[in-house]
Amino acid sequence: MSASVFWFLVVGGVAALTHMAVFALAQAQMWPELANALGFCVAFFVSFVGHRMLSFKDALTSVGTSLGRFGVTAVAGFVSNQIVFVLLLRALDWPALLALFVALVFAAGQTFLLSRFWAFRR
Asked: How far apart are CA 115 and CA 44, in angstroms?
C-alpha cells in the first residue's frame, strides 16, 4: 500500500470518527440530517489539515488552491453522503449511526479519487 493511501485511510478514519462523534452529540438536539451536516463541517477541517500535511504532502498546488478544490471535493462527498444517509434513515428505517457509517464509507471512495487527482494534484 502506498504511503498516500495509508495516510488517506488514517486521516479519513480520524475525520469520520470526528464526524460521527459530533453527530452523536448533536442528534438529540436537532434533526439527524442537520446533525450530519454539523458533523461534516467540523470534520472538514480535520480532514483538510490531515490530508494536506500527510496524505498529499507532495501536492504541487498552493494551500489556498488545495483548500478551494478540497472544499468542492468535500461538498460533493457530503452530498452523496447525505443522499445515502437520508435513504437509509428515512426510506429503510435504519438506526441513525449505522446509516451514517454506511454513508461515510460510500462517500470515501469518491473523496479519495477527487482529492488525489484534482484537489491535491501531483
From this structure: 13
Cα 51 from Cα 59, distance rounded (Å): 10
Output the pLDDT for position 113. Answer: 79
All three cell numbers of 108, joined, read 470515501
Determine the pLDDT at residue 1: 61
Tally of CB atoms within 10 A around 52: 20
CA nearest to 77, candidates 116, 49, 105: 105
Residue 111: what residue type?
Answer: T
Looking at residues 24-39, what average pLDDT do you find?
Answer: 97
Distances (CA, A) of 63 to 60, 69, 120: 9, 10, 9
CB count within 10 Å of CB 89 equals: 19
Contact 51/70 with Cβ under 8 angstroms?
yes
Total of domains in the chain: 1
